[in-house]
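FIELD: query
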Amino acid sequence: MSSRLILSLIVIVLGMLFFISLLFSRQSSDIYYPDLVSSPSHVYNPDPMALLDLPQPVRHSYQELLKLSSRFMLNEDGSAALTAIIHPTDYGPALSHQVQALLAQTVQPEAIWITTVEDNVGNAQAWWQQLPINDRVSLRIVDKDQEWFQAARKASTEFFLLLENGVLPGKSYLAALLRMAHTPEYSQAILGSHGATMPPLHQSPSDDLDHGQKLRCLPEHNSHGEIPATETVDVLQDIFFGRTEALELLSLENYPRGANVPVGVYLSTMMRFHGSIPSVVVANDPNNLATWGDIRKKDQKSTFCSALQQHYHDNPVWHQWIRRGNALTSQRDKLAVVFIFVENAKHATQLRDLICDWSTRPDLSIHVGVAGSHYGLGLHDFARLMPSEGCRMGVYDLKLSHPHHLNSNEAISPVERARLLAEVSVHAVHLLSHLQPRTMFYLQVPGSLLSEGLDIARRTVNTPSIVIKPQDIEHVQWLPDLSVEALENWNTPEIRMVVITNNRPGSCIRLLSSLSQAHYLNDKVPLMLNMDAEADRVTIQMAGSFEWEHGPKLLRHRVRRGGLMLAVVEAWYPEGDHEYAVLLEDDVEVSPLFYSWIKYNILRYRYSPGHHLYHRMFGVSMYSQKFVETHLSGRSPFNPEDIFIETPEYELRTPFLLQLPCSWGAVYFPEHWREFHEYVADRLLDIEWNKTSLQAVQIPRSRTNRWSNSWKKLFIEMIYMRGYVMLYPNYFNFTSFSTNHLEWGTHTKQQRNSAGTFLVPLMMEPTKMLGDLPNHRLPDWDSLPVLDLWASLSTSAELVKRGRELQEQLNPCLRRNHRDEVIWEGQEKDLKCPKTLPYYSTHSTPAPKTLSTASRDLETMTISPISPDPSQPSPTAPGSPAEAIMTPLSSADDDGEDDERGAGPSRNGLVLDGPSPTPSASPSPSPSESTENNWMRKRGDAQVTPAP
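FIELD: result
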């Protein structure tokens, strides 16, 4: 056995032993304790108890509290390390009774301070002289412009106790508080005897606590001070007990307490906001007044809850405090943890805005792990890099060992590498196991031990992860807009590039070059190159030699010409519901940001709560429409600004939903594309079996190619009857994520000057992509404008209604109830009657046959535009049969050649491809074809009714 092999085995064994020792060792657990730093830029741990290997505060009865393990010990003189501070409203008998109640405690405080302002020193001293002499009781003068409770920050004892005026604690109450403070369950909490839990936050602050929503108070409103079990609350009142060091959090607040905001609201909110320190109401023994926080409540009900609610409605300042606190008790279970690992100061600076934007989310708890000072980023270093306000998170120093190779050119030894990787992965596993984040985020840097260790940790804990490269940070600033569910599904969608080319190698190279320069956010993106049978040798060689660095590359070459329709339809068939395709013809060019736009939309609308509401969106366009081809007058200029500028409820730059597919760069969704395959297969069979032409409408077709981009025509048929829509961008000057050069090809037989008409600027600035959106984010689904087939404002419900009306006329086989209403559930996709004989699978297409002249004239039906004004005359010519228009026109979206597409509108509908044809005779169908063609003939009588 060679010495090199022996050395390798030794390295592996040592690495495994070190990993195991770290995994079961608790000696380095101090890295999980958040350090309390008294600096304005400090970022404090939002959930310390989760990292202390301790459970969250739970409900305990008083008897159960006595059974908890506690490390409480008295001072040598028998007192407790506690300073009690009283804030009197007057200096009289009530204050004297308070002092006597404190001095009568079974465990007495080390010091008792009575606060007074300078203007009231005389009254305080007069009262003072009447008290029995006691070294523990003293007067403390506070500045009239200073909050009285700030005096507690000067206490030298480990604990503080704040008492409002008149509160009389039972004799053993302080002993119970001190004992709880030394238990693992309550060591990090603020304790008191009265509190309230608030209902969940609403979108509007004014709705948070309307008169129909009551606070839940402890003691209960109908009780006399009895508290059967401890409970976490949002606000404490009258009594506040905790660790003195926690008061340093008050220095982090830049804004003073509002004039009428209660002290308890301020303290509880600041502790929760800056440190997520919970407020807990302590249980008492109903039969033992000595355990009560305020023995006065035995004979009088508490009124603080009703006063608290009134305070809230009368004080807008408090609205801000409550909403800043975010993690209300009612929302505690709904908070989701996101953990972010940062390696060095450069990465911290790059991620600063993203982290702070994330931290403002009310449903998230953001935690950051820094590598340590040896890596150039310790906890204090990170805190100095963060903004002093508006950014809250937990920060944990992993304190990783010093990797000597970072400061030298020496290669790291295998033993040292194994040790460092084990250290990183074990510390990360420990953090992730305790926090249980919904997702983790970090940057992947080649050769980084932290990146490699985190890769091991995430696979060990199986935590959903977002891993990007540093250069992609500016392209994912929309991450804070995504729901937790969308973040968890970051790696779920597989988006593949599908390029359709034939014999334009120059155009194809331009497209592939633009694809190569795009940012793919560290995703693996497959590339499929589909070449028709007529592809020239240069195109084939270029496709084979092209290097694709972002994922696998697949080449497909047809041996028999299929035409553009089959080239598009057969270019992709999704394997599952998480596979998406960006369909690109070779004369398209894409923006470097197109993938960011697509992924943002997919995660935002497909993987967020309520995604079932978005099932009628079949894709996302990268191109901004400048024309609409479906008007009777032919191609019409289109600018969504003209619509939204007159519609106040929509922002001028809001994206919109349009009932038209885009063939100049768009991503299509899997279930809709599979449905389209089914529909195309059925329609091709109908063309083969139906020997009649439609009597109602004759659609002109191209002089050169009757299948001119007809995949889009069939797609529009389907989406019209299903009420489907595509999302389109809406940036200034039609700035898009793709454009079309309108080059010579199947439909464009000569280069036209009009090509520039359809060129649009490409989006090149990441800040513009997000910054120009309404509120710098994609709108909610309900806020998206809906435009119909003719680019008129409509609604999703109206589109579905129109499609169903047409389906009812075309499909007589739909099941109906006793009121002759269609039962849509389960048969929404039944666009026509099922076939009887002969039977063909909808997953295969028979070989094409030579069609008669009549069958060559067969085209799809057209859909007449629905006039928004019922008073306008019907577009159907007088005396002509009613029409159901289901095909779009030849489009600039399909290549923009007027001379090829036709001269203008026909008398009966929209012009698709050329001059109006002469109606041809219609031979009678054979008996075996009658069933299959019922739905085709039925369409001759179909009519879409105008919109109301």
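FIELD: remark
The longest strand covers residues 109-117.
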